[in-house]
UniProtKB/TrEMBL annotation:
The keyword Calcium does not apply. Residues 1-176 form the Cytochrome b561 domain. This is ascorbate ferrireductase (transmembrane). The gene is Cyb561d2. It is an enzyme of class 7 (translocase). PROSITE patterns: CYTOCHROME_B561 (PS50939).
Length: 181
């Protein structure tokens, strides 16, 4: 379990903690940085997302190497396939975030449209990450390690955080729309 145990730790850190915090930065209701400028929030968001991506890539590397060492097939379960898709999607989403820093690279696109697409696709990526975490919690390793009520409580974590994130993203979007009028 030594090398393998880094995989769930890094992935939970990436998607349950860092990415969640990176998205909540923009919440007008519960962000710890709500009194900070948008520029500061964007930089903190960027840093947290980059750390989340690095943890996810390390977690993917660990599980790939561990499966290689043990002669096991790669990406054959729903969790494995969804996890791979999630890490690839998060990588693409980070590229989209960099384009927001340099919007002139995207000719014929307004900054408002780029922000809307980035936020919307980011929410899809976050939900994909939560789905992958939940599928991982259905794995044999997790169900033998975490049993009874603890399993249900663990399963509630990504479910509840995804509901909070969806609510905060929609509230932030509506808040911004109202403040523009």
């Amino acid at each position: 379990a030594g090398l393998f145990s880094w995989h769930p730790l890094l992935m939970a850190l990436a998607f349950s903690f860092l990415m969640t915090e990176a998205l909540l930065i923009f919440s007008p209701e519960i962000s710890l940085l709500r009194s900070f400028s948008r520029k500061v929030k964007v930089r903190v968001h960027w840093a947290l997302q980059l750390l989340a991506l690095l943890c996810a890539l390390l977690g993917l590397g660990v599980i790939t190497y561990n499966k290689h060492l043990n002669g096991k097939a790669h990406f054959v379960t729903w969790h494995g396939l969804t996890g791979l898709l999630t890490v690839l999607y998060a990588s693409g989403q980070c590229v989209g975030g960099v384009l927001l820093l340099y919007p002139k690279l995207m000719k014929n696109w307004t900054l408002a449209k780029l922000k809307l697409y980035h936020a919307t696709s980011g929410l899809v990526g976050y939900l994909l990450g939560c789905a992958s975490l939940m599928l991982g919690m259905c794995s044999l390793w997790f169900t033998t390690s975490v049993t009874s009520v603890s399993w249900y409580l663990a399963m509630l974590c990504p479910l509840l955080t995804s509901l909070v994130i969806m609510n905060q993203v929609s509230n932030a979007y509506l808040y911004r729309k109202r403040s523009q009028h």
